[in-house]
User: What shape does this take?
Amino acid sequence: MKALEAVPDGDGYRCGLVDAERPVPAAGEVLVRVEASGLNRADLSQIAGRYPPPPGEPTTLGLELSGEVVGSGERVSALVAGGAHAEYAAVPSGQVLPVPEGTALRDAAAIPEAFLTAYLSLVVEGGLGRGARALVHAGASGVGLAAIQTARWVGASAAATTRSAAKIEALRQAGADPAIDTSAVRFEEAIARAWGRASVDVILDPVGADTLAGDLDVLAVGGRVVFLATMSGARAELDIARLMGGRGRIIGSTLRSRSREEKARLVERFRAEMLPGFHAGALRVAIDSIYPAVRAGDAFSRMRENRNVGKILLDWSGVGESG
Assistant: This one.
């Protein structure tokens, strides 16, 4: 089979499809013929040598995919800790999701990492529920657009930020109100005008250092800030007195490093609570672009330059089988 290999190359990436052994599923795994795989910023970190896969997991890039289970033909999407950017992947059975009705098999590759991360951060870690208010930073990313929809599906209001005026409409279409262009206004001021000060119950923050102080400004009493990345830096000054006074909580969350058993429990809960939203049409994949696997370098560059609105997918359907 063919698998993706990528290395940094100046300001871009040098990628190629290389021959690799088709994975042999172990006990508790299924073999999936990959239709499409989703790009994530974790891929960029792994290419840069900063984010190796957990011990025992495939070293091939890729954290989510869609395709057909070999032998049964079942149409699935799946979350993996590595190995999605290839023609075939061995997938833990507990991390498989059925493709929702009305969703194309290729497009379903945009579901697992984005929606499971959003659900884990907002609902499981953050306790978001009906009548609450959520703020989603980097709202035009795949996770961001999934998080806006997730908040609305569980009955919460959602605000979202972006640094690009061109992306505001995508936030609004996903259900964000207010949708905030932080290149024109501070998000703290926009939230105060829309909802009042100290009004946000759960904040999903992949930005990190640059937004921490503002997060505490808008956080409601007993509110939670869930950090899932540090795009602006990992170190920041924390006003502990303000955190204490508002009885706030700061939560760190990652998905990839969790055990297969924990991921299986998360997927089971997601299937029960979130998949009905796809069947009802309330939740939809947000796809920015689809690249053939041979053009992965262009896809990675688009993500690194923050040009995407939603998920970027690699299409493996046209890759020839080589054994």
The longest helix spans residues 112-125. The radius of gyration is 19 Å.
